Amino acid sequence: MLTVRDLRVHFPIYEGVIFDRKVGAVRAVDGVDLDIADGETLGLVGESGCGKSTVGKAIVRLVPITTGTVTFDDIELSKLEGVELRKARRHVQMIFQDPYSSLNPRQNVGSIISEPIKTHSLRHGAAVGQRVLELLDAVGLPRGAAHRYPHEFSGGQRQRIGIARALAAEPSLIVADEPVSALDVSIQAQVINLMEELQQQLGLTYLMISHDLAVVHHIADTVAVMYLGGIVERAPADRLYTEPLHPYTLALLSAVPVPDPVVEDRRQRTVLQGDLPSPANPPSGCRFRTRCPFVQPRCAEEQPTLRELRPGHQVACHFAEELAEQRVSVR
User: How far apart are CA 216 and CA 20, in angstroms?
Assistant: First the structure.
């Protein structure tokens, strides 16, 4: 359904008071490839600042694409403008991270949800109001919510409004940017379960962007791990969580607490040193080498490509085979 090839999003850096001069660029996304099949959920994970939210916004064309292509059902979104882009956007909608700032406080809920319906001329007259009530039913909100305003709802309820707004355009693909990160844990489970139910009922396809590995493991079919603007590992969810091949993925998984104290004490941890490098001046070669506990001289000279080591399991590391053998021998 969605194919992303060599996606790059660079934000220019200007210097000067009167005459602005471009002195560099922040390489927020620097060569990302993604494939999402119809009805699949792809989880995109990574720490803050790695560029995962920018990938989602670039797919929906909320930020300008520097180079690369985004193709949805044989339509190249990256080249569309104006009316054609608006028509295509109906099929690719977004759920935003912050339910408190993504809803217009001056519009009531009915107006917020009906706006995509009217924009794309999906219903007319009284049918618009009826469709709003159907969407409120679908996300588990009372029909009376249509006459109330966002500030009258809790965070979880506001996120349900955001989901209803995304569904109003009757999309095929939904880009969910950290949809539960601003919510309490108990509410997170409700929203994730709601998204799964809607996917089964409506045949939706999701790009789930999150830093929470537990959430992604619960809902995703395939997981792509992102670091400093690029994909470093991609695999089916169960395999990635049980047999990670990239040192960065190992570090991410080792930071997730295990509810069993015996397992928690015995398991081996991978602790990263230093901070995330600046995307305006990334390291040469492998971008992870400045924090990698297994770094070798080759890592500074040659950038690893994303290659398939096992069926459906890709990794961007020069020494992934050796690291996998070491872990097997330790076990």
Answer: 42
